[in-house]
Structures are given as C-alpha cells and as structure tokens.
Write a structure and sequence with these properties.
heterodimer, A: Rossmann fold, 20 strands, globular, B: alpha/beta, MutS, DNA mismatch repair protein, Chain A, domain 3, 3 domains, six-stranded mixed sheet
Chain lengths: 357, 558
Amino acid sequence: MNRVKLKGQSARAKSAFLQGLVDTEGKIVVIVGISKNSGKTTLLNWLTDKLKDYQVGVLTTGRDGEEVDLVENTPKPKVKLYPNTLFCCRTREIDKHSPFLTIVEKLPYKASGETLWLVKTDSTVEVEITGPPTVSTQIEIAKRMAEYGVDLVLIDGSIDRKAVSTSSMVGSLVVVGGPSFGNLTEIEREFKRIYNLSKIPVIDESVSTFQINDLANIALLSRDTEKRYEFEFRTLLGHEKQLAKQLNELDFEDSMLYIPTSIMERSLLTLRSNTTNFDNLPLLTKHPFNLYLSDASLSKLLNQKKLFALNSFNVSAFAVNSFDPQGNHLDSEILREQLRRTLSVPVIDVFEAQLPN
Amino acid sequence: MNHLIFFEKSSAKLLNISEIIDLIRPVSELGRRYKHSLKPYLPGQEAELRSEYSRIKILLDKIQSDKSFIASLTASIAKIDNIRYSLTKAIADEALELQDIYEVKHFVFYSEKVRSILVEKGLTKITNLPDFSNLFSYLDPERQNIPLFHISGKYSKLLHELKSDYSQLNLKLESLAGKNLERAKEGLNLKGGGDQIVVSRNNKALIDKLSDSKWFTLSSENFANLTFILKKSEEELRLEKEKSDLKASIEEEELRVRSEISKKISVRAQELIDTHSLIANLDFLIAKTIFAIETKGIIPNVIEKSGANQELFSIVKGVNIPVKRQLKIKNIEYQPIDICIRKNINLITGANMAGKSTTLKTIGQLFYLLAFGAPLPCSEASLPLVDFIFLSNDTESTNRMDLSSFASELISIDRAIKNKGYGLFLIDEFARGTNPQEGEAFAKATIERFINKNALVISSTHFTAPTLIKEAGHFRIKGLSENSYETLKETLHPQSNLNNSGLQIRLQELHKYMDYRIEEVENSTVPPKAALMIAEILGVEKEILQKVKEYIESNGNK
C-alpha cells in the first residue's frame, strides 16, 4: 500500500490529512464549498497532484474546469488530472483530448441533455468535468468508479440538505471557504456551525432507523417500546403551534421528536415557548444539514444532549482560500491562523509557505 | 405493437391492451423501439406468422430444458445500443470520433456475446447473427477482451512512439518542476509551499525573501496578499515547447489512425446496421417467450379464413389477463373461457354479471396478441388473422361530446361495417342506450347487416329478436343455476353472518356460484332474465326489489 508523503515539517499535517482521505471508509470524499468561488477546484487540483501515486476517480455535481464561470464571468481553473484517473465528462471533452483518453463506459445518465461518459486518462490532461444532477446518480457513478478499482473518489459537491454531501455513502467532507462567503468572523462561524453539525450524535441502535426512514411525517417516537405517534404534517414550518398543542396533550416521557424536514430557529423558538417541558424532549433530525439554527441554539441542544441525527457526516479538513473574485480578499495568514486556533480539525491552505521561526 | 389493428383507438383502452403488452418486456432500447413500431400481421401473412411462432416454440422448448443461458443472453442484449449514427458516418467516409469507435466496439463485443450463446445453445435457427469476431479483434489490439477503447499504440508505431515520448516528457517536466521547487525551498529555507505561494502583506520577511529570490516571481497582488509563482527554468520552457509540438503531432497521427479504423468499420457498417434489426427482433422474441412462460401461454394454430359452417376459430381455456390479475388480488378464482365459432355471426346471451363483456374482451385481446405473433394465454387456440378489430361501446367509440351514447354507438358501427377487409366485430349489447322496443329492432337490423358481409361478428345481447336470426350462432353463458341461486340466497339470508357484509364479499360469493362456461344453444332460445336475482344477491334495497317483483307480476298478468 502506498503512503502519502509530503516533504518538510509543516507538510506533516497535510500528509496526515491526505492519508486520512485515502483511508476513508467507502472511498468517497466530497469537497464542498460554503459559497460560490470558494476554491474547490483549486483544492481538487492540489489533491489530485498530491495523490498521484493512487488511482483516483474525480466527479462533479455540475460542471467544473470551464474556462470562465458561466454565472459570474470570472476565470476558473481547469481540472488537472494525472494518468490513470477516472472521470466523468461530456462528449465534447472527449473530442478535445481523444489521443490521451480511454473510454471506459457510456453512462446511462445525462447532464443538461448531453450524454455523460466515464473516461480514464492515459496521460496528464487539463479538462472540464461534468456530472449528473441527482444525488442518486452521482453516488451510482462514484460506486462504479470504486468497482473499477479506484483508491478514492473525489466529488466536487455542494453543501445542502439535498446534496450529495448528505448521502450515507459519503465517507467524509472537506469543507472549503474564503472571503467569497463573508468576513473572517462569518467564515469562522460557518465553519464552526458545520463542525458542530458533524458532532451531532447518531441515534443509538436501540431505535430502529430502518423504520424511522419510512416515516414521512413528524413523529413522536418512544425509545423503549418503539411505539410511535405520527402527526399529520411533514414540515415544522407553519405547524409549530399545532404541533405544540398536540404535544401538550401527549405523554412524551422517554420519547423523542422526529422531524424529517428543515428545523429553523424561529420554529424551534415557537415550539419551545408553546410546549410544556419542551427542553426535556430530545429532537431527532434526519440529517444535520436539515438544521438552520443559531450557534447558541445548536450548542445548547448539544450540551443538553438533546439532539440526535439519523445520519451523520465527518469533516476531515477545512480548506481556506484568501482570494475573492469580487475583491474582498482576506489576509491569508490571519485567515488560516485564526481558524486553526478555533477548530479542532486540520485547516489547509494549499498556497501556504512559511519561514522557520 | 401499435394499435392500428383496432378500428378505433379507444378499443385498446377498453380491452386493457396496455396492461397485457406491458408484460412483454424487451430489455434493450432497440427491442423496446421495435416493439412499439411493430405492424400487425394481416390476412395473407399466415406463413410469416407461423414462422414467427415456430421461432418462439424453439426458444420455449430450449428454455424449458435449460434456462441457465437466458439471463446471460438478455444481459448482453440489454447492453446493445443504437449506433446507426456512428455507422452512417463511417459509410460516408468520415473519420469517427473516439466515442464513435468505442460505441462500435461495445456493440460488436455484446453482439459477439449474444452470437456465441446462440451458437452454443444451437439457437442460430431463431436468429443468425453475423460473425464480427475479426472486427472485434481489430478493435481490441491489446487483446484485453473488454469493451473499453482507446487509440492503442498498436495501430501505429509512430503514434506509439510519439505518445511514449509525450509521457516521458511529462514525467521529465514534472520531475524538473519538482526538483526546481525543492531547490527553491531549500535555498529559501521554506517550510511547505508549492509552485504558487500566497503571502500576507504583513509577512515582510517572506515577501522580501521571495521577491529577492531567483526562483520565485511576483504574479499578482492585492491589498491583503501577494502571490508568487515558481519561475520555470530554461530547460522547462524548452521542454514545454517540445511538448506542445509533440501534442500537435500526436493529434495529427491520431486522426490518421482514427480515419484508418473508420475505413475498416465502414466495410462492415451495413452488416452492423442490419444487425440492429436482428438484435431488436431477437430481444422482442425472447420477451414474447418469457411472456408465454409467465402467462402459461401457448403457440396458437394459425388458420386461414374458413367457409361457412366450418370452424372459424376456437379457444380453450382462454384467459383475460387483466381480469385474472384483478380477481387474484381479491382472492377470487378465475374461470377461463372455451368457445368454438363456426358461423360468421354469433350472439352471446347470459344473465347480468355472467361475463358477456369479459368474454368479448378476452376474444379481442387474443386476436390482438395473435396479430403481433405473441403467445396466447390459453391452453389451445385456432385463430385466423383479421384486418381489423372493432369493439362497439356506447360511451367512448366516437369521442364526440355532441352525440348521445346511442347515436355515438350507431355512427361508430355504421363506419366500421363500411370498412374494407375482414374484420372482427365485438358488439357489446348494442342499442342498450335507447328505449327497449326500438333498441331491440335496431339490434336485430344491425346484426342482419352482417349476413352477407365478410366479417366475423360476436355480439352480446339481452334482446330476444336478434337471437331469432337463423344465420347466427347462439351461445349462452350458463350463469347462476336455480340451485346456486337458492344456496346463495341461503348464504345471504338475514340471519346468516354474511347478510350485512359489504359489496366486496357479496361479489365474492356471487363469483363463487356463477358458472361462466359458454354453451351453444338453439337460435330461438330466449335470453335469460336474471336481473332481479342478481340485484337481490348484490343487496339492493328490499323495498325496490319488492316493487320490481310486483311490477313484473302485474305486467305478466296483463
């Protein structure tokens, strides 16, 4: 088995992070940005370069490597792929690089009406990659890549409650952010929020997750007897008072409230102020990305050990990029050092270099 | 399997044709398209239809003795795509793109797999695919025996050398860049860092060091940071130029090779195009064979149109698949139908709920399946081909809002009678939508119009007058016997447990005692009058039933 080695003392943390990626359970890692132009492609290129000794599969959930951003008309880096990399692209990309590619498979999926191909690089190429729009097909292609024997699949994805990052097939996330999201405080707060979400404990095995996954509506679940009371509404938004009224009529001791859809801060406040003993009722969310809560609310629920999730996710690193195409750049050193002080997972800056102290 | 065989499109819906043909499932896109574009067999094409059925019979016999091969056969067929576009380009002497050649290789790979199974199982009689093994070998020069494709160096020594040089050059460049970076980092005593370094404006020491170094150059700056990039050495710049020239040479040679491969493909292109139809037909044939297994279907005896008083068609244990499936859900046993028709005009009578409409529909479904060479869900059948199938119905036939149900039915049947060709007319209780006296006259007169017509008519009716037509055959569905009726009445007696049961249970009980068998009777036999009996069993309000009885009795006494 190859080991990832980077030379130099400061590189050891990066080596450990890269080794962690290669050892990811399920072989699927999703790179997510907290905003547009956060630097995902730059990180992807850095990763493919550092993982040259491994066979990597590269996939995106839209388009990546196009010359300019189609929305903001800003220049974008091409995706650089080394020999023996599997990737997914449109027909026109094969036409551009045909001497240096092997076609592995014509995929049964399309993106914007165009056929998608699974292709292997025979030589180093700089390409535009394209992926299918739905999570299930993205995961299907990632699984196919794994079946073809790749050591790791890197997916350029997004952070959203309906995105590939929520799939239980994903081993870990690398979260990328920079000033295109906001100022340093805002980036720090968002990274912390994501980190806290990743720490929401998964419901223990005594509760049958299989049965809960079948529930479409909000439900009160008994922990001991697996009894459940299903309410008549699926979303919390607009039903807070109705739910509170019904909860007040029920005995919810030793139960938890399962909410399969989004939980907003305001909904939670309304529910709390209208339900007797609400703080004693644990909440169960389908996925942490369904939570849109303030830091304080989230921390409180976590500290009280009253928040659980059916599915969880793992953040293997945060990556930062001080550049902003709109000109709101941040001091690169302050950005990474501030985040390193407050976050307990690696913070990567691919453009970092230091002089000895 | 289009609906052109029907005189009116709506008949397909009334006969639940979709539910039946959905059970015939080709696995490839080619097969699915073939199924939907297929034209029906018409009178005069009996020999072709028999030949199609004999192919199904061969496959059916083979599967019954050895079904192990069918999964791998269908799995290979499912992988075969339509590549006509690429082949047309090859025929037009165009250089195929990499993906076009991949598609040809993929097609040939799976076509060869299918062919080898057919050869191994002695099934070349059903489909004899061309041998493309030489073409596959040509498209698989590295003998990997997989459908992946790239322009192998084996096609051209020059291409092989150029690509090899290109790879070496890439490695050399990467190595040079790596060494260059390492030297720079050592020289500057840098920790970390790649060929692009972003430095905070506040880090004066690093900025000075990078600015003064011979290895890095400032590429951009903003109010927060400065970006330095590693300078390329003279050697790197020279090699990059060499790489760019080499790339152009590779592209040129690759185009030449693709043109050569395209020429080779063009030689077999027409055969490959023809193979599409063979694969599509085979896929459909397998789907029909699997349909036969799943529905316990049989290969019918295809007969020519016969003369008067000879057997025109016969069905033994004919099954209406949609009805059987519905009854299965309700746990009710399905009774198949037997019928032997010797006259051009035939009347079916029987009590309400006895299955007259279902019988007509079953006949229609079987004639439809026959027209597409599909096995029939029955245990024996001798059927002729027809030019069209007409199913009368008083609600949907003309689809015109400005016509009453009777008018709509009348116009529809009038049009159908005038249609050319040998038609199967399934007429379900014609003229039931008008007053009984006139309706009976219309029903008789309309049936009589078929006496000298080149048509096969099966008509259900409650009227007596049509049954008096001497040229017509008369069949009756046995329905409820007096004994069964008494038993049912007992079962649904006020004191019995079932008395207050819902319609579902009453229907189940009715089905249990109803005899759906068809018997041939004398022409003059009066159609049974069992509406009151059925209404009673279905639990219609007693007051109404009493009034009906009184009315019938008083009318009978008049």
